[in-house]
């Protein structure tokens, strides 16, 4: 899918639009250090690229994704999950992937976001 939707350029746009929303979100923004937005952008982009068949840079530089473990320190409740999905869905709206790819991407991020919930308050 990575190559079919435009490769790095498309994934960079998805992630930058996503983080434009996250930066302004009163619940999600405090989870990110102000000095590391570019690092967060790189990590998410390379993770998503690898997941969708692109370069394996993420694993080469960071090892196995271990998503639940890497997010365990953060307060991810249903509200945080819903906000994350709101911004990710807005990013996907902005890039307008072909329908089949869009549906697959949204299905994946929905399942991944649900799996990150670690508190129910």
Automatic annotation (TrEMBL):
Its cofactor is heme. It comes from the Bacteria. Transmembrane segments: none annotated. The keyword Membrane does not apply. InterPro entries: GlbO/GLB3-like, Globin-like_sf, Globin/Proto, Globin_bac-like_CS, Hemoglobin_trunc. Keywords: Heme, Iron, Metal-binding, Transport. The keyword Protein biosynthesis does not apply. Belongs to the truncated hemoglobin family. Group II subfamily. This is Globin. It comes from Leucobacter rhizosphaerae.
């Amino acid at each position: 899918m990575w190559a079919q939707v435009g490769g790095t350029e498309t994934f960079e746009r998805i992630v930058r639009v996503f983080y434009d929303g996250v930066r302004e979100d009163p619940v999600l923004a405090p989870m990110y250090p102000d000095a590391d937005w570019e690092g967060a952008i790189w990590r998410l982009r390379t993770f998503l690229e690898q997941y969708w068949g692109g370069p394996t840079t993420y694993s080469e530089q960071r090892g196995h994704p271990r998503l639940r473990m890497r997010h365990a320190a953060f307060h991810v409740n249903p509200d945080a999950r819903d906000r994350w999905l709101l911004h990710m869905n807005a990013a996907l709206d902005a890039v307008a992937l072909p329908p089949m790819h869009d549906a697959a991407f949204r299905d994946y991020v929905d399942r991944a976001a649900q799996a990150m919930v670690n508190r129910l308050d």
